[in-house]
Amino acid sequence: MIPKAVRIREVGPRDGFQNEPETIATEDKVRLVEMLARTGLRRLEVTSFVRADVVPQLADGREVLERADIPEHVSVSVLVPNMRGLEAALEVREKIDEVNVFLSASETHNRHNVNRSVEESLTGLEHVLARATEEGLRCEGVISTSFGCPYEGYVPFERVFEIAKRLSVSGAVEIGFGDTTGMANPVQVGEFFRRAHEEIVGAELTAHFHDTRGQALANVLAALEVGVDSFESSFGELGGCPVPPGATGNVASEDLVSMLHEMGIETGVDLAKLLDAARAAQEVLGRPLGSHTLVAGPVEWHAERDPFKENPPR
Amino acid sequence: MIPKAVRIREVGPRDGFQNEPETIATEDKVRLVEMLARTGLRRLEVTSFVRADVVPQLADGREVLERADIPEHVSVSVLVPNMRGLEAALEVREKIDEVNVFLSASETHNRHNVNRSVEESLTGLEHVLARATEEGLRCEGVISTSFGCPYEGYVPFERVFEIAKRLSVSGAVEIGFGDTTGMANPVQVGEFFRRAHEEIVGAELTAHFHDTRGQALANVLAALEVGVDSFESSFGELGGCPVPPGATGNVASEDLVSMLHEMGIETGVDLAKLLDAARAAQEVLGRPLGSHTLVAGPVEWHAERDPFKENPPR
To answer: pTM (2 decimals)?
Structure first.
């Protein structure tokens, strides 16, 4: 029932770094991206092409892409908010495999975030997706506040699915569902993805959870149980628009990988190398990061005996 | 399949406070215990009767019990390590409903913790359980390192069940399984409790998880899915022998309650009052506590609409 292997997209260099108040040197970004690209991760969101006055931290996105030495097997993605962002990304087309576009499922959050109605966002993104697809780029559409909105509360599943279908028919081959402020719970997640798999046919469905209320890995488990096999996370537990300030945002990649491996699920990731990257980020940022596995270390069983091998699930 | 209601034992005043390096004033302990006792919690571990030179923080256990005004519906438990501890507890018999005895499933951990072999511990505790039962006290036997040992690694399920059965036949009507250093994962937990329910008949089985690697609530979910309906947790995420220092220990009661309520599972607890108690503990201890829900606040849905009501699980 639970997938034997999952795909993970590391979003730290974009979603994590953009939330850092102090400018990170381009060479540090390049080094961290290169470390991540050598962990066995197959999907890596490297930067965004957002206006430099809006997200100054990622103003060097193009330079990071040009300088970072990333192995062929890693699918490099960048976030583009609109056609202008896409055109900027296309100037380094050969460095990019995928683009992500985004909007929120709730009107109020979308208005706060990009100053547009959901319909206006969708109309704009349909053009972006068409153009990116023409250029041979793989497209992901990310829907924020898919599991609840801090302004509006409940967001109907049907509304989220409707947006997902619009993105899908416009060219998004993958839809990411973001729990932007950590409102999802496991019962909801199970029911959401069970229906989503029925309703949204032909697109890969990806779960992006936040650990705001400590439930990220419980939500991962609930998603796995209904067949979700694609996740997004951020090394070092970086980023993810912590609301309120100080709260936890994105689930840490190393906590996700640690749990999946303990459960006998393959990720392709070398956890030790991922922890090295998180430790390096900690040094660059000059503060302790919140990931559990970074603090506690991974679980180490001795003598090749562990509960999974000794007691395989029936 | 998932239980509609669960029982929670709050262990913070014992398991949490005992790990605090600075002495907490008796009056503060009394006040926090009284706050917890008015949250709707029905089980509260108030203190221990361990030698004062071993756990000086809880040397005032008897006084806390005598002074705290605890409603009748709250079942008060204390930890007793041995017959001497039980005899001390019996001096305030009328203040106590339950006693907890404990040992580790792994030899090395038990040796480190109480300087005895598992067999020596069991023999001693059998007498304690018999005497406590004679006195009309309800008895819980807690088995540490049930899901793995930091020294020995894998602990065979059969070994844990064997110890549980010994405790059960000696008078423990409840067996608590402790994930002492957070080594459990959801696949293991599901398989463990599925078998435990078959093997250990006639005792209530309680799960006690730590969030060392961020998996506590995922493990709670896995346990719920195989019918576990009794949990232990600590308000403010206090205590739980963090290994290594700085790591997370016990899962926070407010994070547990928050997830359960969001999932539509009854606990009887008023989450707002529980958060008040955790905030009060934060003030007493003079440092920010790690519970997610304390930082982020509970999820608040508006207008009586929430995902659980709108999309009841099929």
So the answer is: 0.97
